[in-house]
Batch of 4 targets.
Target 1
Amino acid sequence: FPSHDTGVFYLVERWYKDFKTYQGCNRANTAEEGARWLVKEGYATDPTYAEKLIGVMQEQGKKSKPKAPASDRFTPDKPFSYKVTKHITYGELALHAPERRFTSQNQCNTALRLCEYLETVREHFGGKALIITSAYRPPAINNAVGGARNSEHLYNTPETGAVDFWIKDVDIYKVQEYCDRTWPYSVGYGAPRGFVHLGMRQGKPRVRWDY
């Protein structure tokens, strides 16, 4: 995995939620309660496992970055110059077209998650320029370009969204292979057309397809 966060997301979304044996852990209301259920339900054989895990979580919590002030949060009304992440601006996501502005906070939240992963892709390939060719497409634009009726580019439900991109001077097939290996949600194999589709949808299933 390209980062600790990506590994944790994959574990939580693709294993704990689906693995029926650990029902107590799945229903835990707090991280501490979940740690204790792992011992009760037999995942951990060390009787002190829960306390050790809780200690690690608490220590990592102290090191967590403080959240950005609400005034600096990515919202639909931000200017196109606003940096969603270190190297990606709102304008790049909207292709600098006013009609491609996001209209809800859910859309911005999803776009932020995608951009955070794109930063890891960019870093993996030496920090070369990452070019976004499509992100949010309102229904009229999606219809005009021949997009699928239920395209992830519509950002029409929480945790649903997509970005098509390529990286300058990097073999697009290598970029696609890296995303296929490290992104746990949607990847469209658009390399023959010069881009990689990176997305997610409700329930965050692992989905792969050819264009």
Note: The CA atoms of residues 135 and 163 lie 4 Å apart.
Target 2
Amino acid sequence: MDISVQGSGEAVVIALHGIQGTSASWRPVAQVLEQSATFHMPNLRGRGGALRGRVSADYSLLAFAEDAAAAIRVVLQPGKRYVLAGWSMGVSVALQLLQHSSVAAPERLILLSGTSCISEVRWFAEEGEALQREIQAREQRLGLKQAADVEAVAMTWQALRNTDQRGLLAGIAIPTLVIHGSEDQDCPPSHGRSLAQGIANAQLLELQGIGHSVLSEATVQVAQAIEKFLSPISKAGAAV
């Protein structure tokens, strides 16, 4: 497994990246929160040093959820509670992971800049070489310093572009924080609102003037919101 670790705080956060991101996407927020949380940031398949798929079917949400479940089994001691966080595609992976029977459910859920219906966002519209150019342009627009390679992203998009997970939301009872930018062009803010409305125990923070890259555009605001959301965990740990 290719897993980066940041921080030494009581709350354990498994943080999942987006379709073009890597574990590095979460590092700015993890650095701000390193005293109150320990972030474990796996590279999912096709990213960083993780295993690579050969065809688009290797990049299904089920496959990514298997990667995330494997990471949880590697980093967590038996019985240890954790928080599951996802940004962009990582939200979709997190929703899939909640259906996974081989790992315990998280204590809390954090969903950033995501959607429960990828088929309605259309991050890319082209095929072939045109799709590769779209991927490169989006990488630059989002300001990704460490991005997944174009081939892995293209196959991932082909696997996920018709995904609809809206039916899963009603079954989630975990306390959930949804953070979304008001100027998000990739997952318009209506998608964040739908997530918060569909999950019974969810709260929504809509960041005004912020786009899709909330982890880098609004690092301090996101970190403060997460710290507040995790405070019951930190206080419980301090009391032990």
Note: The mean pLDDT is 94.
Target 3
Amino acid sequence: MIAAEDTLKVGVIGMGPVGQILAVHLKEAGCDVAVCDRDKDKMSLIRKDGVRLEGKIKKATHFNCAYTSARELAAQNPDLIILAVKVHHSDSVIEELLEVDNKTMRLMCAQNGIDVEEKLVESFGEQRSFRMVLNFAGNLMAPNVVNVTFFNAPNYVASIDDSQEIFSSRFAGLLSKVNLDTVMVNSFSLVSKVWEKTILNSSLSALCGISKLTVREIMEQPGMAEIIEQVIEEAFN
């Protein structure tokens, strides 16, 4: 049983595979979770039927609070807001969040790419900004159903300026308690993890393009893990 003082009030913006996977696990961990996506039809379905995970992770849950604007979600004064939107949507989401900024909520980037967290830092400052490196993936089988294709544990989370390591550790612990293993690291280590993930994605995208296989199918090929490791090592050297 997870104690109430160990939980958080969390908002997840972006109900693609990443956002849905995180939201389901945070709800299971006992957090008060609100979800948000601009797709009104998707959010109507999530309000009615909840979210279901299938494939490598099988879980389902409902959410009491589901919004179609970041402004509405931020008005609920969550402890933490997680951005799981496409990077090109970040500016408009941040603009909405700034309209109701209570100066205490924390912001976390759960997006792929180099320096994608900088938009949060510019708007909310380093002390309130966090970044995750996610090592799971999935695809939408329906607007509210995610096929989780793999989870190569762990995920990583860090405070941008290392001033919020206690909060980072608390957040990582919540996800780990529900088997979405997540490790708190310092900001220096996180940079390495970001580059590893970026190189991995670049390598897999090229291989998928050549072979016409999915990422999951590529990773299941004999000896492919060793090839990818060599590519990452060569890129770092």
Note: The chain has nine helices and twelve strands.
Target 4
Amino acid sequence: MEFIKINYFNRVTDLCVIADKHDTDKSAIRQEGHSHPYSIFYYDLFKGRRKDKLKIGEIGILDGGSLCMWNDFFPSASIVGFDSNPRYLNKALKTLSDRPQIEVDYIDIGKKDVLDEVLEKHGPFDILIEDSTHLFDHQILFIKTAVDKLKPGGTMIVEDIFITMDHRTGMVHSIDEYMKRLDDKLIQRFERCYLIHLDHSNRRSPGWDNDALLVFDGYRPRAGLGEDAAAPGVRTSEFSDP
């Protein structure tokens, strides 16, 4: 696993503009609230696949801004947003009803059986992103569970890694700590694995300082994966606390 630092300075990409339009903190040019430089990194990583029929999953949807961002950037992709908060899920059912390529479902990032069942239900994925609690143990559980839910060549990313320390727990999210908890065999199933610290002239994460990504790219499965899931539609039922 590599450790990388990138400073984008004043750079702006098409994805930055799309992300800013949907008011997601993934936009490097967002003017209010947190602004992570992810939109530049993601543009460079995925720009060659914009027209592909991808399956994308993201855990942690908040107001649905990033789901709309992915929908605009990947117009041929099927997108699933997961969350444990019924309020966010029910809001998405209403506000995303005109985007049939986006589906939402309940998941609990802290429960392995739920995580495994729900990701299996919707996968396999070309791109799978974790953007929920930002807790170290939840990130490790996600990585270990989600690895088998990827398509060959797939990408798995954990967002909002703390550059210094998680102020809530005192946990240091360093590359050494991740290596202690992740099996070498898991890491070897990817062509590239790296922890990347990102900077930009507009970067803002006051009180959190969590502008890093943990990236697993180029998945190499042990055996064949299942058939692609059917094209999703927005769920029409409401969600309640489990």
Note: The mean pLDDT is 92.
